[in-house]
Amino acid sequence: MLKLYNLIYDYNRGILMRFLFFITILFVSACSSRMEMLESSFICPRIGFIKNAEKTEIKDKNIKVKISNVMGECSLGYKDTQLDMSLVFEAGIMKEAKIEESIKLKYFVSVLSNSGKIILKKVFSTKLDFDASGYSRKEEDHIIRLPIKEVADVNNYEIVMGFVKEEKK
């Protein structure tokens, strides 16, 4: 009888150990997939514009341009954070003006600290081509490396952008 009891005990213990092993594997795999999800859905710092810098007007050519549909997605790397940013430029020539073929504009993307100090500034240029009606729309994508090393630091930064104002000669 004791041998039968030991045999049943060992059998049940084996089943229990296999069950615990299976549950542990499930738990570990669920945790690791959750960790990957957290890294890929990392929240970017707040993205915005310097006051009135999201639009510009080229008065001598009667052209109005604005930046719209700004989107960004961040991924945390080993040494920094990568911002994949997309923005759309829309421009229109006023009806009474001569239709231009294209214009070139400069714009910037900056990373600011909480105190407003510029940590990083990148200046880009774009060329907008107009159609026969005097309208232009162009989407641009950029990859920008941000000096953010930890998720907790996201709220310490802000990303701002706008047009570079041309100095009058």
How would you briefly describe this protein structure?
23% of the residues lie in helices and 46% in strands. It contains one helix and eight strands, in the order αββββββββ.
Our count of domains comes out at 2
Helical proportion, percent range: 10-25%
Q: Counting H and I runs of at least 4 residues, what is the number of helices?
A: 1
**What's the CATH first level of the largest domain?**
Mainly Beta
Instruction: Based on Cα principal axes, name the global outline.
Output: elongated
Distance between the termini: 105 Å
Order of helices and strands: HEEEEEEEE
Largest sheet: 4 strands, mixed
- Average pLDDT level: 75
Poorly predicted spans? 26-41
Strand residues, percent = over 45%
- What Rg do the Cα atoms give? 28 Å
How many β-strand stretches? 8
State the CATH architecture of the largest domain. Sandwich
By secondary-structure content and strand pairing, the structural class works out as alpha+beta
How are the strands ordered across the major sheet? 1-8-5-6
- According to CATH, the fold-level topology of the largest domain is Immunoglobulin-like
Q: Could you explain the architecture of this structure?
A:
A hairpin with a 4-residue loop joins strand 3 and strand 4. The protein is of the alpha+beta class. The chain contains one helix and eight strands. About 9% of the residues have low confidence. The strands form two sheets. The protein has a four-stranded mixed β-sheet, with no helix packed on it. Strands 2-3-4-7 form a four-stranded antiparallel β-sheet, with no helix packed on it. The radius of gyration is 28 Å and the shape is elongated. It folds into two domains: 41 residues; 118 residues, Immunoglobulin-like.
